[in-house]
Amino acid sequence: MALSSPQLQRFLSTEFNFASNTKTANRNILTTTTAVRARSPCRCSAIAIDAPSSLTDVAGIRWGSTSVQGAREEMEDDLIIRSDGLDGFSFAAVFDGHGGDSSVKFLRDELYKECVTALQGGILLKGGDFNTIKNALTEAFENADKKLLNWLETIEDGDDESGSTATVMLIGNEVLLISHIGDSSVALSRAGKVEVLTDPHRPYGSNKASLQEIKRIREAGGWIVNGRICGDIAVSRAFGDTRFKTKKNEMLKKGVEEKRWSEKFISRIAFSGDLIIASPDTFKVALGSDAEFILLASDGLWDYINSLDAVSFVRNQLREHGDVQLACDALAQAALEKGSQDNISIIIADLGNTDWQSLPLQQQNIVYEFVQAVATVGIVSLGIWFTSQVSF
């Protein structure tokens, strides 16, 4: 017999694990072991019931990721996705470098290691005290920056002035934690509605985050010209960037030599702190059953496609074919077609929370027949029937 509506809703909120072959896109960077992949549960897309198999981690999240050089002469973006080391929480991050790729290459693994250490291998995440977690992530970011600054002194005769932004996501136990410096951004699709979860750290604009950055820079002795710190850089929080941290006085002297300002001008400058900092903003977001997917990307995407259009694009892609990796690649291509001149890095975390009533009618019918089958033929026969109807 058919289940009543409340029973149906409860049933559909239950996860079913089916064995499947996991396929990995060439540019997807999920560094789990083969053994972990083999036993990871396959989970349907949050949007499409008949989603093909995508790279799925131990938490059941289906990942897509892509990095595209675009029109830039150098590739200074990178990304990482890890599902080990944090006691069931997944780690994902996008890095957007500038002034070269040295800082990005250093941070890609080093920041993850610092986060694992500071979070005590995930123990603090399980504890759930947000202030403790926030302090640990701040410590991880600042320690990584100190190590990077020391390392930059050892290469290219200490003349490497590269830097990098970083936006980190930690996902587990129906919770999303974000630790963020720079101008990459995170958007959450919740029941089809968009929630933008980060503010860019840029020293221009009239929003609260920008005004705070402008105030901090000026109090540290810096100045802003055309939205750029000292007329130079348009991002106010980043790793590296020695000229705005450990070599501020050298930066002033170099500016005189290049006739960007005068000796008289620099005689009035008194620095009281770093102009660019690596202290992150950290947020905690409850996910729940209405959270569909999370989209993290560098500004090579967001400067050309706004969050509403980007999330709508991904939703439509997942409704069409359910493949997270294909959706990721298609979104990067859409940004290029919109005229993006920057490197583009994108991570999509599909959380597998299916709102069955938002599915196309044909897929709703499959779900409804699936529920009826449970009550009539039992779970063994059900598995045979369901796999004949639904392709993962």
Automatic annotation (TrEMBL):
The PPM-type phosphatase domain, residue ranges: 62-351
PROSITE patterns membership: PPM_1, PPM_2
EC number: 3.1.3.16
Alphabetized SMART domains for the sequence: PP2Cc
Membrane topology recorded in Swiss-Prot or TrEMBL: Single-pass membrane protein
Keyword Magnesium in annotation: yes
Superkingdom in the source lineage: Eukaryota
UniProt xrefs under CDD domains: PP2Cc (cd00143)
One of the record's GO molecular function terms: metal ion binding
Cofactor dependence: Mg(2+); Mn(2+)
Pfam family, one: PP2C
Compartments where found: Membrane
Main location as per UniProt: membrane
One GO location term (cellular component): membrane
UniProt entry keywords in alphabetical sequence: Hydrolase, Magnesium, Manganese, Membrane, Metal-binding, Protein phosphatase, Transmembrane, Transmembrane helix
Signal peptide: none
InterPro entries (alphabetical): PP2C, PP2C_BS, PPM-type-like_dom_sf, PPM-type_phosphatase-like_dom
PANTHER family according to UniProt: [PYRUVATE DEHYDROGENASE [ACETYL-TRANSFERRING]]-PHOSPHATASE 2, MITOCHONDRIAL, PROTEIN PHOSPHATASE 2C
Family designation: Belongs to the PP2C family.
Name used for this protein in its record: protein-serine/threonine phosphatase
